[in-house]
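User: Okay, second chain of the day. Same drill as before: sequence in, structure tokens out.
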Amino acid sequence: MTFIDHFSETAAGYARFRPRYPESLFDFLAGAAPKREWAWDCATGSGQAALGLAGRFKQVIATDASAEQIAYARSHPRVEYRVASAERSGLETASIDLVTVAQALHWFDIPAFFDEVKRVLIPGGLVAVWCYPLFTIEPAIDRIVRRFYAETLGLYWPPERRRVEEGYRSISFPFVEMETPAFQIESPVALSQLAGYLGTWSAVRRYIRERGEDPVALLSAELAPVWGDPDRPRLLTTPIRLRVGRKEQGR
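Assistant: Same drill. Structure tokens below.
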């Protein structure tokens, strides 16, 4: 499967505006992992999940197929960033305690990636994949954003987006799956920050390339009267759809 690069052109915005994940999520994953030595954050982007893991693991290898994304990642003494594909990590066999993929599994050759996960995990090692659906803020804002998502951008979403809308539940998951707590993202955003985040969406980038205009600018103008003071933060929330599984002993 050829790497289709949706995000290198928005690497700076991705690093600045993509939401962070709750600390409780990383506490849970670290507690469930067999050891806290080595973690691999695959498709790390600009390192949002890798940095959460770094406070809990001795060493984090954070890979992404996009060198531009890696260039914007925030450094940390326990995180080593590498350019590598999900399906060919370059990691040693049976060397990793925890593998994570945040909001990226739907872009992979999934069977090939899971084969790679099985190869690099230690026996009993853990893999965690998650995504998040469309956020909510307030009903009047949500109605406008939902229309933008479904109607303005509807024809511009890659087909892989469907897997996110399904919460990854339709993906065959060849691990011993475990029950997980509920987690959600909560992030205060001003109107300009929301616009910056929306500007990183793959459908927005395709819309701009094909139509030569930025749909987020039009959306921001529509949201302005509902939002009020554009600098007033409003709370963005979205549930995290998480699947966690363990590599079987002896496999």
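The CA atoms of residues 16 and 69 lie 11 Å apart.

User: Thanks, on to the next one.
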